[in-house]
Specification:
Layout lengths: L5 E4 L31 E4 L9 H16 L1 E10 L4 E9 L4 H7 L15 E2 L8 E6 L4 E6 L11 H12 L7 E6 L2 E2 L33 E12 L2 E12 L5 H11 L22 E3 L2 E6 L11 E2 L1 H11 L7 E6 L6 E2 L9 E2 L10
Length: 360
Amino acid sequence: MLNCRARKFAASVIVLTMLLSGCGLFGKDEAVKEIDPPQDVTYLEDGEAIQSSKEGEKQTSEKEEQKATETVKRELYLIDKNGFVVPQTLELPKTDAVAKQALEYLVEGGPVSEILPNGFRAVLPADTRVLGVKLENDGTIIADFSREFSNYRKEDEKRILQAITWTLTQFDKVKKVKIRINGHDQTVMPVNGTPIQDGVSREDGINIDTSGVVDITNTQPVTVYFLAQEDGQPYYVPVTRRVSNKEEDRVVAIVNELIKGPSYTSGLLSDFQADVKLLDQPKYENGKVTLNFNDGIYGSKEKNVISEHVLNSLVLSLTEQEGIESVAVTVNGKANLVKEDGKSLAEPVTRPENVNIGSF
């Protein structure tokens, strides 16, 4: 009898981890580490029959059904009632095509409609199709959309570009984003001409606030997280501001912007008190930054207790900076703080897993 052997070749995949790890506000799924890999292909030697038995079909069906019921947490950037682009961590069906799926869940009237949080709307125009995504070796991901992508209001243009960019750059290997429409590269956005050039990254900002900035050329961007509310439920909103190039320490600049608080017309909130001050320069060690505050960091809370929202805003804002993985807080040089839930804050806090899905 002639023995035949099956040779199986698995197509190469790009292994990804989510941008951020830790506990709390930011969503990460360790099981899904691929951006839209090709399907595994099995080649058979001549004369070998392809399995077509009912048993084989049943096994395949069971696997597909199981996969369809599995979900993973994904970070989608949606538009809130105030027009801010805001991360929301939502449960999506498990898939290998993670980047393509994330974009499809940004489409108005698409699958996101069933799970949209109150007060939020989808970003991309209705009927927009994601024709494909391609990750280049330099970390640039190219998103190709159908012609319907151009059917948006010009006032939404920057929001759309920011939402696409920040949604895709949640994946560790993705550094910047380019746009195609029907296979054609776009150097500017199609409605109002916002530049895309060689790609857009998080460095280009989100919910940009330039109020009070006279000369933007002598500034650098920093992104800080303020609070908003919907139906009494707080959530965090990233805002990019311009700070002077004369500010040598970006961490100090970020803390000062958090203390300054959101603009009065923004509708955003902050738990920081005006009398909060850093007593020393931040200390850096192995990805950890240590901040030493005065008693003002307690705000209206009892001694040694730090507000959950103050802590969350600090950690989210500072871990946006490359190289900062955790934040330690001391007051007058002492690390005997506790959180509002009574737990000790003796250990540094890493960037949380789930943005706007819960608290630390």
